[in-house]
Amino acid sequence: MIEKTRARVEHPAPIAPEYVRSIARYVPGKPVEELAREYDLDPAAIIKLASNENPRGPSPKALAAIATAAAELTRYPDGNAFALKAALAAKFAIAPEAIVLGNGSNDVLELVTHAFLRPGDDAVYAQHAFAVYPLATQARGATGIEVPAKSFAHDLDAMLAAITARTRIIFVANPNNPTGTWHRPDVIKAFIGAVPRNVLVVLDEAYNEYLNPSDEAQATRWIADYPHLIVSRSFSKAYGLAALRVGYGVMDPVVADMLNRVRQPFNVNALAQAAAIAALSDVGYVAESRRLNGEGVKQIEAGLQTLGVTALPTHGNFLLINVGDGARVYEALLRQGVIVRPVSNYGLPQWLRVTVGLPAENERFLAALAVALSN
Ligand SMILES: Cc1ncc(COP(=O)(O)O)c(C=O)c1O
Predict the structure, then answer these.
(1) What is the residue with the minimal CA distance to atom 2 of ligand 1?
(2) Does any ligand 1 atom lie closer than 6 A to the CB of residue 316?
(3) What is the mean pLDDT of the chain?
(4) C-alpha 206 – ligand 1 centre gap (Å)
(5) Exposed / middle / buried, residue 87 (Cβ in 10 Å: 0-12, 13-18, 19+)
(6) Which residue of 147, 197, 210, 298 is surrounded by the most CB atoms within 10 Å?
(7) Burial of 139 by CB count in 10 Å (0-12 exposed, 13-18 middle, 19+ buried)?
(8) Is the pTM of this model over 0.85?
(9) pLDDT in tens, 153-196
(10) Residue 52 Cβ contacting ligand 1 at under 6 Å
(11) What is the mean pLDDT of residues 69-79?
(12) Ligand 1, atom 16: nearest CA belongs to which residue?
């Protein structure tokens, strides 16, 4: 008895490896309910422009599909997501075997690291790139090589130069979150062509649907020529389905097979599968979301100009804004019931990221920002 007690005191709990203990936790946008509790605010009066969701919500077709699918929750979903893969395969004129579905595209990013990274390997990504790349790399005990950005954007030449014999994955977000920076399709294609074939290029296109169609890379067509390419996409952004958690990767079937081996058998739930199929079919809804986003970007940019505040040109549904002291202005906005995203964890303490909302939300943000900056 005494022995047992002593053992518990000396070893209070099993210890995770150092590379897990030193992971800096992902900090999501503050939930509305949490802010309401903390500041004693009416949740209905709070606006959240912090997680790059579509302010219009999902297509009505997706909502109808969810309602239908909700009538049958007893059975496990189709673990191979036959119908959703068929819809994606038809859209991109590729084989269903070239598609891996994820519980959000975040899951796809993690599956790549799970299947391809070991302790001692490297993954390359850019400074100010999406936070999940370093997290997923470190969780495998691999080493992240962060390549300094150039004018806030990925420096693709420097990223190529950073590849070593230990490099297994190179992450490129196009457009990137939180900077909104973007590279032209020809530049991206040349980059992929220059990466050695034993290094996987993860081209993260979570915001692809917000690009002008003429700017889209159509990178899913490149997998036949580039078996080291993985294109990841999300239903969380323009499709408005963030809460359901569904995304996908398009890649050589040999690579897809590896990801499927480490994937949870039922990683995409039935409601998400049904909603994603319906959302894909509603191309008009996505086009209107893109149009509205373009208007919102202009609205916010004009308001910022009046306030004498600069933002980076954006290719996504969010803007990175230089407010001088991100932490102070973030708090001042919270007190007014406006949630945006601080980005000091991205090495950008002077900046805040704001998601483009509906016109009234954008107006409310600009008014709150004016107050926050004048205090
Ligand atoms: C660049 C980028 N990639 C991937 C994701 C992951 O999105 P999800 O897992 O919701 O598909 C995000 C989400 O913010 C993102 O900004």
Answers:
(1) 206
(2) no
(3) 96
(4) 6
(5) buried
(6) 210
(7) middle
(8) yes
(9) 999 999 999 999 999 999 999 999 999 999 999 999 999 999 99
(10) yes
(11) 96
(12) 177
